[in-house]
Every structure is written in C-alpha cells, then in structure tokens.
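Input/output pair, single chain:
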Amino acid sequence: MNVKVYNQDGQEVGTVDLKAEVFGVEPNEAIVHQYVVNYLARQRQGNSSTKTRREVRGGGRKPYRQKGTGRARAGTIRSPLWRGGGTVFGPHPRLYGSKFPRKMKKIALQSVFSSKAQSEQIKVLDKIELKEIKTKNIVGMISKFDLAGKKCLVLDEGLNRNLAMSCRNIPKVKYCRASLANGYDLLNADCVFITKAGLEKVGEVFS
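Output:
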C-alpha cells in the first residue's frame, strides 16, 4: 500500500510504501477483542485488600467461658461474626490480566495497523523536529491536517523528549515510541501520526 508523506506544515513531500506484513493483513477481530480485554484488565491496580480472621490484630484470648453464660460459644473476638472481626472471602491483591501469547499479540497489532491503513487513518510525516518544548507547535501541526479536537496518537522512533513533553498536556493527544505501540491506543485514536523512522521501526518490530 502506497501512502503520501507530509512535513510538519501539512505539505505533501513524497510517498512511501507500507509494509504488507504489518499494514496489509486481514484484520482478525476475535484476537483484537481478546487483546483489548486483557490489556484493560492489566491496567487495573488490583490492590484491594482485606484481612482474614487470622490477620486481624487481637483475639488471642477466649472472650468468655464456654458454658454457663447462656450465650453462643465464642473462641475469639476476631470471628467474622463479630464487629471488627475478619472478612470472609474478601478481596486480596491480585493481577487481573493473564499471559497473552506473543504470536497472538503480534496478530492483534498487525490487525489494528491494517485496519487503520484501510480506513486512511494513518498520516506519515517525514520527521517531527521541535527546537523547544511547546504545546502550541503540536496543536498547530494537528490543525493543518484538519484534526483539531480529534484523538491523535503520535509515534516516533526512539525517545523524542521535546515531542513527548509537548504532547502530554494536550487533551486527546498521546505520544508513544513506535516500538512500544499498543493496540488499545491505536484503536482509540481517530488518526495515527507516524514518522518515517517510526514506520521503519514498526515494520521491523511487528512484521
């Protein structure tokens, strides 16, 4: 698939071929769905915690004698039946996600990249160079593509600090290194801006 290449000012400066192994596959919706469900599950902190009867402080002494009081038998004041006692089957820290096979992850990402390419939601830029950290520059660049207010994902090769810092304060705009792109952010974006260097890295990592 052949797409146009633009500069930061929105002017066309050439064309580039998208790698068929990444941008030209038949999207597998079932695997993409599994990937997104697992990804969102892994975003959960999973740090809710309660104490069982053996973890609650105190309760080592029998509260009253076994017989003769007319009350129910009790061996500890930390029983789940008592106020201040332990919790039965309460939540404990855990990981909600599960292991996701590497091959399935690659298929999911190839499917998302291909879907975006087929929908013409990928804009290839020759490069993004910022002399200073300035949000206005990124807003201006996006506006030149008539995408102001849209959800945009910016992918570049390596760590571009000025670009990352300029993007992070803009609502609906997210920066990510091309090699670390995830399917959820790609699906969530209305447009994916990717530099030529980032495009080469995507082809190298996800093919």
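The first helix runs from residue 20 to 23. The chain has a mean pLDDT of 92.
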